[in-house]
Specification:
Length: 136
């Protein structure tokens, strides 16, 4: 299999094939092939830059990769912040701690130690459930 420029398709193409316009475009097949190869070469070089930025500390990489408005957006928060928000939401919604721990991928003891402050303020609900259980 040859390179994209001299591969089997290019080698078999006649001058008429290359000069013919591609369906749905204004470009000839040769121009289209040139742009595909040129685009491929650009992407290869950009991948090096992307991998370099990916190795930088998160705040530096985000500052280089995002606009200032995007950096300030809550959606640009690190993924673990979003995970923390999800676990907090589940706990405050009344999902049982063992179920939340299993879904979050850590033990109940760790989850309760880390997220204990999220469960705060549910004393009235807990007291009502205890009273209902004792009454039945």
């Amino acid at each position: 299999m040859g390179s994209p420029v001299t591969g089997p398709c290019r080698d078999r193409a006649t001058a008429a094939d290359l000069a013919r316009r591609s369906d749905g475009t204004r470009w000839t097949n040769e121009q289209l092939l040139f742009h595909m190869v040129f685009g491929y070469m650009i992407v290869l070089r950009l991948l090096v830059l992307v991998r370099l930025i990916d190795r930088l500390p998160m705040p530096v990489g985000r500052a280089l990769a995002l606009t200032p408005d995007q950096v300030e957006s809550p959606l640009a928060a690190p993924p673990y912040d979003l995970r923390h928000a999800g676990v907090s939401l589940w706990l405050n919604a009344g999902v049982h701690a063992p179920e939340v721990a299993e879904r979050a991928g850590h033990g109940v003891d760790v989850m309760l130690r880390v997220y204990a402050k999220c469960i705060d303020g549910q004393r009235d609900v807990a007291n009502q459930r205890i009273a209902e259980a004792l009454a039945s």
